[in-house]
Amino acid sequence: DGALLTASQPVSVSAGGRGWATNGCGDDGMDGLVPTSALGREFAVRLPTGTDQTMNESRVRVIADVDGTEVRTDGALVTTLSAGSFYNFAPIALTYLQTSQPAMVWMNGSLNGCEVDTVLIPPIAFAPALTELSLDFNVIASTQNPAAEMALLIASSAVGTVELNGAAPTFLSNETVPGRSDLSYVRFVVTPGDRNVRARSD
Predict the structure, then answer these.
(1) CA torsion, ordered 177, 178, 180, 185, to nearest 10 deg
(2) CA angle, corner 48, sides to 129 and 125, nearest 5?
(3) Who's near 189: CB < 8 A, 6+ residues apart?
(4) How many Å apart are CA 78 and CA 66, to the nearest integer?
(5) Which residues face 40 on adjacent strands?
(6) What distance in Å separates the CA atoms of residue 162 and residue 51, rounded to the nearest whole number?
(7) Region of residue 172 (phi > 0: left; psi between -120 and 50: alpha; otherwise: beta)
(8) Using CA atoms, how far apart are residues 41 and 127, in angstroms rounded to an integer?
(9) 65 and 103 in contact (C-beta within 8 Å)?
(10) pTM value?
(11) What pLDDT does 185 receive?
C-alpha cells in the first residue's frame, strides 16, 4: 500500500492477489491502476450488501498521494494523511467521501459472505451523454441467490431512464448521495445470462 511507481515510458499496472484475511477468507481479485493525474477528490462508496464483516477485511481504503491530504466522510473530517499512508473504514451505508488532495480509493467486498474481491473505486466524474450509454456483460450461473447485484452512480434526474435488458429494473435501493442531491446510487438484482444495462446519462 502506498508505493509510488514511476516509469520513463507509459506502462500498464495492475494490483491484487489471493485472499484478504489471515483465516483464508477471500478470493482472487485484481484491478488496473490509474496514473496520479487521474486521481480524484470526490467518491461515493458503499460496501456490497452481504459482505463479510467478521474479519475486518471488507473495507474501503483511501491512499494519499501527497502530504496533508484531509479525508472527510459525509462532510466530517476523519483524518489527515501523509503521502503513501492510508485510512480504512467500512461504509455499510452509502457514504460521500471527499479528500482535500487527489487520492486513490480501493475497496474489498463481496455480495455474499467472505468471497471478498477487490476493486479500484473511480472518482465522481460525469461527462454529458450525447444519446445514451450502454453496457453489455454476462453473469455466470451461480448457486447463490441473488447471482449478482449491480450498483450505479447516476445523475438523479436520469434514474428513471435506467433499463436492464430493455425494461426498468426493480431497485433494491434508490438513495441520494449524502451532500449531493444531484447524484443517486441505485442497486438491482441481475440474473445469470447475457445482460445489457443502459441509461440516458453518464
Answers:
(1) 0
(2) 25
(3) 146, 148, 149, 169, 170, 172
(4) 17
(5) 103
(6) 25
(7) alpha
(8) 16
(9) yes
(10) 0.86
(11) 95
What is 48-63 written as a DSSP string?
-TEE--TTS-SEEEEE
Q: Are strands 50-51 and 112-113 parallel, antiparallel or unpaired?
A: parallel
Residue 52, pLDDT score: 65
Phi-psi sector, 156: left (phi>0), alpha (psi -120 to 50), beta:
alpha
DSSP, residue by residue, the chain: -------SS----EEEEE--STT----EEEEE---GGG-EEEEEE---TEE--TTS-SEEEEEESSTTEEEEETTEEEEEE-TT-EEEE--SS-EEEEEEEEEEEEEEE-SEET--EEEEEPPP-----SS-EEEEEEE---SSSSSEEEEEEEEGGGGGG-EETTB---EEEEEEETTEEEEEEEEEEE-SEEEEEEES--
| Grid cell listed for 152 | 450505479
How far from each other are the two terminal CA atoms of the chain, in whole angstroms? 31
| Each residue's pLDDT tens digit, 68-85 | 999 999 999 999 999 999
Strands 40-45 and 95-109 come out as antiparallel
Asked if residues 154 and 162 have their Cβ atoms less than 8 Å apart, the reply is: yes
pLDDT value, residue 147 = 81
